[in-house]
Amino acid sequence: MSPSAGGLVVFLLSVQVIQSQDGWRVNYLKTDVCALKGSTVYISCDITHPPGIDPSDIKDRFWFTKEKDGEPVDLGTDSEYSGRVTYVCYSDSCYLTITDVRESDSAEYKLTFMTNKPGEKYTGSPGVTLSVTDSGLQVQVRRSDSTWLELTCHSSCVLSDHPEYDWFKNEENIKTGSSLLVSSGSTDRYSCDLRGSWDNGSPAVYGPQRPSVSVSPSAVMLEGDSVTLTCSTDANPAANYTWYKEHEDSPRASGQNFTITDFTAEHSGNYYCEAQNEMGRSNSTLLRIPSSGKGGCTWSTTKDIVIFVLLLIIIIVLAVPYIKRRMFPERPEQRPENGTQIPLTNAGHQEE
Ligand SMILES: *[C@@H]1O[C@H](CO)[C@@H](O)[C@H](O)[C@H]1NC(C)=O
Ligand SMILES: *[C@@H]1O[C@H](CO)[C@@H](O)[C@H](O)[C@H]1NC(C)=O
Ligand SMILES: *[C@@H]1O[C@H](CO)[C@@H](O)[C@H](O)[C@H]1NC(C)=O
């Protein structure tokens, strides 16, 4: 059934109730009440009665949520509520106070009473729906000026009274009040709690701790590869991330992961990330991205080695005849010696 259809049925039923009850009616001031666990809830209503009725004819007023054998059970007699409920009734209005509300108190509360006709009862239905939440508290951060932040405590449910909050810095109670001023850039943890309740309170808000950076894949990179730098930190509210290359003013990327596709030598260098949330910001240490991995070979170094080896071969080829000449100098010189020996012998012969 759609909510509007449900509302229509309830409306029709209540019209029927009113018609059959000769002008009796209970108007609840609020039909939906949300409360934090441990707080105090006030529920109030006005009774409309047929003309000519003396308010003193309204008797035995009480509030209930449960029925037993078709009869409403007075909250005041319910052991689950003992010591926690107070009724205050004036001539034609009634108030219910429940202190230290629990999640099990979430229910529909209705007022019932006896009318002037003997044995006739009237119940104000539909009643007031109470929802009790565990905490639902949230610290909201607003920048007050360049150095101060204003923290306020908010509930996911609309509180039925003006709540007072305790403020905590690193779990130590430092103040009571609706808001707290703190300096920005702090990594201290701030939280709020409903005054006098001993629950968890809100989650703490805090600026980012120094982010840690990592690179994936961590193995050797080749030109044309893609590489992803990841920045992470602990912060609440969650931080956003910006990537910088050392000695550059404008950011390279935003987002927790920074992927460099088509890696080139230009990409090598030192990178860092900045994590920022409403509470502050923090820069990581430098992450070094080498142009080639240690001991690894990129295509450019392979090319260099090939060129080097080729040059070496050319040099050797060119140098061999020269080296040969220098290492075995006797042989070529022997020929002219022999040549001269022949004339010498000839000369010898000539001498002989
Ligand atoms: C960043 O990458 C990691 C894995 O490397 C992944 O688990 C995470 O979800 C990514 N974060 C974002 C915001 O894309
Ligand atoms: C990051 O968050 C801060 C506030 O927390 C905001 O001022 C800033 O513009 C954000 N930066 C990016 C890149 O989303
Ligand atoms: C982080 O680095 C950026 C860019 O160099 C700079 O603007 C910012 O002030 C630095 N943040 C901190 C907290 O040092």
From TrEMBL:
Residues 126-192, 211-288 form the Ig-like domain. It comes from the Eukaryota. It comes from Gasterosteus aculeatus aculeatus. The chain crosses the membrane at residues 305-323. PANTHER family: B-CELL RECEPTOR CD22-RELATED, VASCULAR CELL ADHESION MOLECULE 1. PROSITE patterns: IG_LIKE. InterPro entries: Ig-like_dom, Ig-like_dom_sf, Ig-like_fold, Ig_sub, Ig_sub2. This is Ig-like domain-containing protein.
